[in-house]
Amino acid sequence: MNLVAALGLPFFRVALLASLILAGIHAYLGFHIVRRGVIFVDLALAQMAALGIALGVVLGVHEDPVKSYLLALSMTLVAAAGFAWLRRHAQRVPLEALIGIIFASAQALVFLVLAKSPAGPEHLKETLVGTLFTIAPHKVTKTAILYAAVGALHFVVRRPLFDITNDPEGAKARGRRVFLWDFLFYGTFGLVVTSSVQIAGVLMVFGLLVIPAVAGRLASDTPGRALAVGWGFGFTACALGLLGSLALDLPAAPSILVALAGMLLLLGAGLGLARRRA
């Protein structure tokens, strides 16, 4: 099935729009994550959001979108504050190790929380692969508004955020309040991830945050060009992944993740050949 024919299907259009919105904000956030060297922070935040969703199932509020979202958001904000605080101890214990502990613990808790729920396996699957093809259009609209607000805020405070991302020790020496700026970054990151997990699941969130950013870094050392490559890379992979999912009757989010990984391999091979010839 080609893209023109697929666009004739309402559910495909909604899923494609949601994927492009997710790719847009996550490619930018992923740029910061890759430069900061905290690759798995997104997995940890996404898993904390999944833990909040699991708690909503057990408490019987998962059908209430407001209460379910607030539970997921509260868990991600707890993790965001923890990541901002843990930077102070990164010299003694690698930050990635602490992030890994939070991720593994949150994942274990999700399994334990849902173990006694009759619908536990289905909800567990949703936290991993999302519900792209069944998402309601109004939810996509709300998500787009939230992401636009986060993007606008990050644009306003881009100088201190990029300063800390590129040179945290130098930023601290220059008087930047690193903890507060880190909490703002991880807190808004948590807002995005909380919504993303409910739509696309943990796996696709991780893929969209890391793989386009890595593709951008491979293609260019200039931040603007790297972001542009990351956005184009993410948009293309989302379209190809959804088309493949529709044609082969496969889950949408894992298909996009495989498309992202495959395109990254092709990009790496292409850049390697080009540099050898040069």
Into which percentage range does the β-strand content fall?
A: under 5%
Shape: globular
Order of helices and strands: HHHHHHHHHHHH
Class by SSE composition? mainly alpha
Compute the number of helices: 12
State the low-pLDDT regions, or none. none
User: Distance between termini?
Assistant: 38 Å
Indicate the topology.
Blueprint: H1 3-6, H2 10-36, H3 41-59, H4 65-86, H5 95-114, H6 120-129, H7 137-156, H8 158-166, H9 168-173, H10 178-219, H11 223-248, H12 252-277
Helix pairs in contact: 2-7, 2-10, 2-11, 3-4, 3-5, 3-6, 3-10, 4-10, 6-10, 7-10, 10-11, 10-12, 11-12
Short description:
83% of the residues lie in helices and 0% in strands.
Question: What does this entry look like structurally?
Answer:
The structure is a single chain. With 278 residues, the protein is mainly alpha-helical. 83% of the residues lie in helices and 0% in strands. Helix 2 crosses helix 10. The longest helix is centred in the last third of the chain and has 42 residues. 41% of the residues are buried.
